[in-house]
Amino acid sequence: MPFVSKRDSLITICKEAISVDAFERNRHHLARFRFVVVESERHQEILQQCGIEERRIRLIYPPATVTPYRAAQPPFKVLFASSPMRRGKLLSRGLFLILSAAERLRDVRFILVWRKRDHDALRDLIERHRVDNISVINHYVDDMGILYDSAHVTILPGLDHASFKPAPQSALDSLGHGKPVLVTPTTSIANLVAQRGCGIVFEPTVSGFENAVREAMVRYDELQRRCHAVVQACFSREAFVRGYELLYEDLLQGAPVKCAPRSSRARGTPTLG
Fold first, then answer.
1. What are the b/e assignments for 13-51, b being 16+ CB within 10 Å?
2. What pLDDT is attached to residue 134?
3. Domain range annotation of the chain
4. Are 187 and 172 within 8 A, CB to CB?
5. CB contact at 8 A, 124 and 92
6. pTM of the model
7. Which fold has domain 77-232?
């Protein structure tokens, strides 16, 4: 069966590590690949610090689709569409932060899209905070586009780097619908958001959250009109496909295909966790 060795292959890092120590532990494994593809500038910088040659690190953002912008109706709505997949992740995903801020932002409506897991714990938190400006959609949503269109902004209030993927899907979908994003500095696309002006980067504190929402309300038109431009410049499908085309062209230059013995076993790839 044909195969290519690690020296003639590549690996894509599309999730966050629990700790940067995982990159250190796996740096020798990663160095054996011809190319390492990353989806954020943060990972690009970390790998360079770990000694991976810059020419072997490729930053290729995942693709997003531009959808015609539809203005949301008042009141101002904040969408959270990053429900945790596992129990015990409410704090790191920023749910405690959202509920605390909702107490101060009574004129703002919060929409939480949930995956059923930990729904009881979420409901208990909402009741404890005695907030009535939060709606929870606790089921599979066939068309998330309707929710992005109905909201003014999407929020990713993670408390650590492992809270979200390097390029969170909810952020890309929000920008694709022309809706700004509010993110904390630990979100890997925070620098991109700040540089491109398609949202607001805020400290993961209650006051930081509140100020970010208030600022987004004041600067909304300015932030909103930059969203589609960011998707077209960084997250277009054309750029994604072209990025991998160029990568495979470079990979195939001088990369002979070998034939593995029938008895050989495929070796595993390093796990960043």
1. beebbeebebbeebbeebeebbbbbbbbbbbbebbeebe
2. 96
3. 2-63+236-259, 77-232
4. no
5. no
6. 0.86
7. Rossmann fold (3.40.50)
